[in-house]
Amino acid sequence: MTTEAYRMARAATRLKAAFAAAVGMNLVEALWDPSGLAWTAARLAAAALFTVAVVAYVALRLLRWRRTRSERP
Fold first, then answer.
1. Which terminus of the chain has a smaller tally of CB atoms within 10 A, N or C?
2. What is the pLDDT of residue 56?
3. How far apart are CA 28 and CA 32, in angstroms?
């Protein structure tokens, strides 16, 4: 596996984990109405992690696309 493929796989795994955490938190909020500073901080942290994971994954995909596009004759 190349370094680029390894980075893509790692980014995809992190995106899946962030998505699972976000869905889990939404499920908790749908079934039980948590409140307070700790819950708000956890929600903000989960949102930030998910945003960073999405941006990293998209950036790697775009870089990969540019490289393959520029390698063509």
1. C
2. 92
3. 6
CB contact at 8 A, 46 and 25: yes
- CA separation for the pair 60, 8 (Å, rounded): 7
Q: What is the pLDDT of residues 35-50, one digit of tens each?
A: 889 999 999 999 999 9
Give the side-chain half-sphere CA count within 13 A for 62. Answer: 6
pLDDT at residue 73 tops 80:
no
Map residue 47 onto helix, strand or coil: helix
Q: How confident is the model at residue 64 (pLDDT cuts 50, 70, 90)?
A: confident
Do residues 34 and 6 touch, judged by C-beta distance below 8 A? no
- Report the half-sphere exposure of 36 (CA within 13 A, side-chain side): 4
